[in-house]
Amino acid sequence: MNKDLRNSELLSAYLDDELSSEEKAEVEKLLSTSLEMRKKLDDLKKAKQYGNLVKRIPESPYFETKLMAAIEGHKGQCSLIKKWIPAAALVAVTVIIMVVMKLEPGVIDRLWEDQKVAIAGFYKENLQPVLLAANLTNEDVFNFAFNNELPLDNTRRQYLLLGYDDSGKEFFEIRSSDHKIKRESYNEFISAMNLNDNQKKTVDSIIGSYSKALEAQVLVNEKNTIAINPNLWNLRKAIFADLLVASEKLNKSKFDRIVPSGITDVEKVIVVNTLEKLKNTSGDQYIFVTPDSIFEESYQFDSKLYEKEMRELEKQIQLNEEKVKQFTLNIRFDSTYNSYTDAQRVHSFRIQIDSNICRVDLPEPQIAEIPIPGMATIDPLVEQATNNIHFYAYKIPKIEKTKTEIKIEYYNDDSVYSYVVNYNKLNLDSLAEANPGLDLYNLEKLKPVKPFDDTMLIKYQFDRDYYHKYYSDDEFKKRMEELQKELQQLSEELQNQKIRVHREVTGTPKK
Amino acid sequence: MISKEEENKDLQQSQILSIDDDYSFIRQFIDGDKSAFQVLVKRHKEKVRNIIYITMNNSALVDDIAQDVFITVYKNLKHFRFESQFTTWLYRITVNKCKDYLRKMNVRKIFYPIEDGYEVSEHTSPVENNDISKIVMDAISKLPVKLRMPLIMKDIEGFSYQEISEALDCEMGTVKSRIFRGREKLKEILQPLEKELMN
């Protein structure tokens, strides 16, 4: 062997403390006399250190469960099949198929049906409730009722959106988004309904009672199967209806604005009875979206067994909290879904894939897998209230020093609105909020405010729909003009203090 | 702060202490106590998963291959002869499974050069997004398998040359030579990024 190469290998093993005492002495002698060898040792040390930069893979909490399930599945199989058996079997099977096909041509169709059952079984293995991992908050459940969307992971990057197309047929979308959209619909609702802390607790407990029922509605597994229980559509209506009935009790006058026709005692009884049934009937019918098929099948999710597993997991969380925090269930948009363009092939399920959206249109009939009495009575109530309540999500961009204004986008139903705020100009509302007891003639000690603390802006946007609903366009314009006049007057008063107030602060939003 | 090498030494010591435990769990399994197998899985799964993760450079495959490894162990544990450590046998199976998968992936690439469902870049996890770790893992995945395996086992998992030679079923001299060549090659690949990585 080349002497240099041998010496280099010795150096590498010296670093690992894997030399005999003679070899070690030899290397140390070489190092004391050769600068080149010392440099080589440094180089090898660096290369060895690269290993320290590699991060370990996060622990897999379900690995053992999956493994034991797989072992159970393997038990029945014979592992010692001689090499010649498959070839002989192939010949035999070919002959049998030829004979059977000749005698009974329909057998292939029946085999195909059997195969479908086997495939369904494969994709139904080890399904886990994804919403449990998403740690649903009250805001999430509330948003689900009012905005039809549920987060699917604890980073809030993936959402499930339920909807109805123009013909009234249900569809769902799984969306992934890089934007963090701020929603505070729940708090807005509490303040719009003018509820105190005790009343809020009542609403909290109503919402909380649905979290558990929601958890088992969306299941996923490591085979990228997504199983959605159609009962989700009913549960959404249920939460909405439950909140409506509670709102009526808690603040009748505000409730009358949401449902002007009111709610009768009979309807209340129907709502309460229906909701109890819905909460306790999860239904065993799921829609399975898998990398190679979409199908509707019954599936019994054993929530008790899962709870037991979760208790085990919680123990692990306590032992190793940091590692488990990284645990996130992610749904990948599989490119193979793209092949589902032919409605015939997917039995009238229709699937569309974009880079960050996966939409599945459901076939007829509409969702009614679990017959719930009284659902038809709730529907018009919910629809009326839905038309009268709108919430917005805000997307506030980063403020750049070079610009004097920011463009705030807000979302309402399918529309995106934008509103430009000049944040270099004085904003009275924000100032008043940040400085209780504001003295307009003594403005030297004012606390600075950030533009997104502007409560006037938020309130104005929230009330915009309210204005449209209860005032005509002329009335709305008139009120805005009055507001602008007030600001104008204030501006003139403040001119002596060399502070400018700009009318644009309440400019009309542009669609 | 404990260096990785010290940590590995501690691990090695604890492994020596645990050989008897492994043996006793295997005996329990052979006597019909199936739960003993679960204990063995619990003890060794993370090391097995990590070897697979770094060797394959693809988190999406880890649990499938690890499952395959433990199913093989389960099927053959009754025939374990207590002549070597359990871990030596376990890591040999792990290494062979990784080689099998890599071979299958190479065959697949011949037939599907563009649409390969197992492309490394297709499945990224939060860990893989960690830039430095990913850069080093990508570099390691460029090494030939025969250099990659001993390098991972030594510089990341902290195995001794003896353990590596048993797991890879080759001479100690070969292990020594391959680790050296692996380090040389890795350094060559990462040379342009050396400053950033070491900072």
Model description:
The complex is a heterodimer of chains A (511) and B (199). Chain A has 511 residues and is an alpha+beta fold. Chain A folds into three domains: 3-53, no CATH class; 128-239 and 283-374, no CATH class; 393-506, no CATH class. Helix content of chain A is 50%, strand content 13%. Chain A has a five-stranded antiparallel beta sheet with strand order 1-5-6-7-8. A five-stranded antiparallel beta sheet of chain A has the order 2-3-4-10-9. In chain A, a hairpin with a 3-residue loop joins strand 9 and strand 10 (357-361). The relative contact order of chain A is 0.08. Helix content of chain B is 74%, strand content 0%. The chains are: A alpha+beta (511), B mainly alpha (199).
Describe the structure concisely.
The complex is a heterodimer of chains A (511) and B (199). Chain A has helices spanning 3-15, 21-33, 35-49, 63-75, 84-103, 107-123, 130-133, 138-147, 185-192, 197-215, 231-250, 252-258, 265-280, 303-319, 321-325, 375-388, 428-434, 455-470, 473-495, and strands spanning 128-129, 149-151, 158-164, 170-176, 218-220, 226-228, 285-290, 293-298, 350-353, 357-361, 393-395, 405-412, 415-422. Residues 324-329, 339-346, 448-467 and 497-511 of chain A have low confidence and may be disordered.
CATH homology group of chain B:
RNA polymerase sigma factor, region 2, helix turn helix motif
Structural class of chain A: alpha+beta
> What's the number of domains of chain A?
3
Please give the CATH architecture of chain B. Answer: Orthogonal Bundle
How many runs of DSSP E, i.e. beta strands of chain A?
13
> Taking Cα atoms only, what radius of gyration of chain A do you get, to the nearest Å?
33 Å
Question: What is the average of the pLDDT values of chain B?
Answer: 80
Q: What number is the mean pLDDT of chain A?
A: 69
In terms of DSSP E residues, the strand content of chain A is 5-15%
User: How would you characterize the largest beta sheet of chain B?
Assistant: none
Give the total of beta strands of chain B: 0
CATH third-tier fold name of chain B = Rna Polymerase Sigma Factor, Chain: A
As a percent range, the share of helical residues of chain A equals 40-55%
Q: What's the helix count of chain A?
A: 19
Run of helices and strands of chain B? HHHHHHHHH
Number of domains of chain B: 1
- Total number of helices of chain B: 9
- The parts of chain B where pLDDT drops under 50 for at least 5 residues are 13-17, 112-129
Question: What is the global morphology of chain A?
Answer: flat
Counting copies of identical and different chains, the oligomeric state is heterodimer
Q: Give the distance, in angstroms, between the N- and C-terminal Cα atoms of chain B.
A: 18 Å
